[in-house]
Amino acid sequence: MKKIILLYVLEIIITSCATSSKNRATEKYCGYEMTFEEVNEISTWSSRNPNVFEVKNGSEIYDEINDSIRNNMPDTTVFELFLIKLTEDEVGIDAYVPNNKQFIEDVACIFMNTKFSALIPKNRKIRIYSYTNPDGSGDSPFEIGIKNNTHNTQ
Length: 154
Description:
- This protein has one domain (25-152).
- It is of the alpha+beta class and 154 residues long.
- β1 (27-28) and β2 form a beta hairpin.
- Strands 1-2-6-5-4-3 form a six-stranded mixed beta sheet, with helices on both faces.
- It is globular, with a radius of gyration of 19 Å.
- It has helices at 2-23, 36-48, 58-70, 101-113, 149-152; strands spanning 27-28, 31-33, 80-86, 90-98, 123-131, 142-147.
């Protein structure tokens, strides 16, 4: 009987440890990797709200984000940034970048760590796509989705 009880206790401990480690967000590129559900949510939002520049301060917010990233990246690198989600408490961008791990990390870290004006919502998300050719053409497979840690703690 003691062995059976011990087995149940052990099973509960193993199950709870496996569940808690599975639910932990993975730290990635100065933020946390988005879950599949978060990537779907931002994709759905973007498809239903295609013109984020028409919301209050949309162009100014995009310009501030775009300038901060471009001012901290080499002029020779071809990449594109798109504002894809803008609400009162969240901003999201898509970045189409060269397939270079360091460059992907640099773009994400600049976006996550820059101290923006009060116009920029505190919660940030970035979906990163990489292209295959140096001129920005070719396939753009989805690489990773990242969110900042303030969003993670909500």
